[in-house]
């Protein structure tokens, strides 16, 4: 269970993260993250919120997915930077996914956002640059 201070509750908080934060999508979920510099006087705890729409399934299925995601995020909350805020949005394939599959997708999304345990900021704290479409040898070349 997430502590009260670590939960997002207000729709305005969700809206800020969804509009201003970074996004990483996987097959079963999308993670939106907003990292802010916490004030020095009060240490800000990392917070998380969940969006599981009716497209995922009926009430029982949605609550099961939410419980699984809440458990997975609470285990990873301590590894996130102070002041960071996550919104985890479940996609319809999350309904039939196991906890291990959801955890793998969550970890991959967090790594892609630079918040995972094995990933740090790219190049001395500079933000990661998006890949150019068509760049690289995997797209073929006319040699």
Structure in words:
It contains three helices and four strands, in the order H-E-E-E-H-E-H. Helices cover 29% and strands 15% of the residues. The N and C termini lie far apart (56 Å). The protein has one domain (4-116): Ribosomal Protein S5, domain 2, CATH 3.30.230.10. It has 143 residues and is of the alpha+beta class. A four-stranded mixed beta sheet has the order 1-2-4-3, with helices on both faces. Residues 119-137 have low confidence and may be disordered.
Quaternary assembly: single chain
Instruction: Give the second-level CATH assignment, the architecture.
Output: 2-Layer Sandwich
What is the count of distinct domains?
1
Total strand count, please? 4
> Quick one: CATH class?
Alpha Beta
- Distance N to C terminus: 56 Å
Sheet with the most strands: spatial strand order: 1-2-4-3
Helix/strand structural class? alpha+beta
User: Major sheet: size, sense and barrel closure?
Assistant: 4 strands, mixed
- Give me the number of helical elements: 3
Helix content: 25-40%
Q: Quote the average pLDDT.
A: 81
Order of helices and strands: HEEEHEH
CATH fold title: Ribosomal Protein S5, domain 2
At a glance:
This protein is an alpha+beta fold and 143 residues long. Helix content is 29%, strand content 15%. The chain has three helices and four strands; from the N terminus they run H-E-E-E-H-E-H.
């Amino acid at each position: 269970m997430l502590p009260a201070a670590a939960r997002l509750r207000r729709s305005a908080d969700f809206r800020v993260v969804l509009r201003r934060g970074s996004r990483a999508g996987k097959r079963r979920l999308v993670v939106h993250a907003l990292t802010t510099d916490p004030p020095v006087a009060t240490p800000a705890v990392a917070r998380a919120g969940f969006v599981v729409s009716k497209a995922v399934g009926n009430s029982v299925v949605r609550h099961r997915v939410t419980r699984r995601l809440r458990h997975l995020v609470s285990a990873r909350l301590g590894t996130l930077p102070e002041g960071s805020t996550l919104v985890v949005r479940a996609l319809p394939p999350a309904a039939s996914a196991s906890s291990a599959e959801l955890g793998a997708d969550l970890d991959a999304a967090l790594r892609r956002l630079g918040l995972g345990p094995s990933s740090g900021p790219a190049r001395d704290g500079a933000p990661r640059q998006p890949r150019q479409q068509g760049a690289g040898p995997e797209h073929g070349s006319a040699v």
